[in-house]
Amino acid sequence: MLYVVMAYLWLSILLYVLMGGADFGAGILEFLSTQKSKDQTRKVMYRAIGPIWEANHMWLIIAIVILFVGFPVIYSTLSIYLHIPLVVMLLGIVARGTAFSFRNYDAVKDSMQVIYSKTFMYSSVITPLFLGIIAGSAVSGRINTGARHFPDAYIFTWLGFFPISVGIFTVIICGFLAAIFIIGETKTEKERQRFITKAKHMSLAAIGAAALVIIAASADNVPVAHWLFGNPVSLGCVVLAALSLAWMWVSLFRQSTKWLRITAGAQITLLLIAITYEHYPMLINLKNGQGLSLVLQHASDKTVEALAVALLLGSIFILPALFYLLYSFTRQEEI
């Protein structure tokens, strides 16, 4: 049952990166758009993310619940030593959702729309930035559980070259996913060409951000290169991701966009497998050279079994409801 829980944790993280990432990316693309094209970009993205934006954070909630119930030591370590970036990320989620609602559903369209739009765009950048910083901090060995001073315990655990580079990479990946996903939601050839161009730009930016992560990892002595190339599985995933990226570029130039969403999702999945395979079962690397393992630092067997059963039963109700949500919005657009 422990491995069932771990599988759900990994899948919830993956789905949050894919669906929530594309959601955040919509705001990132709006932020990066010129003032002239912001309105049109906003309309297309609203049509694209409207059906699922409320459901995206379900995956984050599932991951948090799994950590809280199934791996309390890991949960408490993250929530204590990384509480500053966690609070910033959660505030960004709240601010973004609030701004999105008021901007699109406010009965009175006045000057507050400017504030709503800026809040939506800025929080769309800040939230994935700090999500990446949290992930980079957890695996980079920066968390010092023996620290006696506030900066060492709560500031330098996340404020560093590598965590920030992972945060930047996360922001770019979200923008990349949004650009790819939204191509299929465009209604005119002009819109389609605009987002194909955005997808190309974000793809190049993602390659640059990935190089920045490798440089930062080398500077901070984080063995990212070993995680990616140190075993056949991770190396194979990296090679497949690179090949799929090349195929994606060919498809973009040929304007053959039918399989782009699946390809982009496969790329992120392969990269996550490549990173986590070598790193497994460690979820957190500590500064003292030790780590917190999913296999060793879990709750009691009965708690884990109950959690696994709850996840399996919950899937029976949650997944059909989610699919019906997407289907109903699709039908509404057709009508």
Automatic annotation (TrEMBL):
At the top level, the lineage of the source is: Bacteria
> Know the name of this protein?
Cytochrome D ubiquinol oxidase subunit II
Which Gene Ontology BP terms does the record give?
Answer: aerobic electron transport chain
**What family classification does the UniProt entry report for this protein?**
Belongs to the cytochrome ubiquinol oxidase subunit 2 family.
Q: What keywords are annotated for this sequence in UniProt?
A: Cell membrane, Membrane, Transmembrane, Transmembrane helix
Q: Where are the transmembrane segments?
A: 6-32, 53-74, 80-99, 120-143, 155-183, 204-227, 233-252, 259-277, 306-327
Localization recorded for this chain is:
Cell membrane
Read off the InterPro entries from this record.
Cyt-d_oxidase_su2
Q: State if Transport is listed as a keyword.
A: no
Where is this protein primarily located?
membrane
In its UniProt record, a GO molecular function of this protein is: oxidoreductase activity, acting on diphenols and related substances as donors, oxygen as acceptor
Q: Which PANTHER family match?
A: CYTOCHROME BD2 SUBUNIT II
Q: Which GO terms describe its cellular component?
A: cytochrome complex; plasma membrane
Record organism:
Niabella ginsenosidivorans
Its membrane topology is listed as: Multi-pass membrane protein
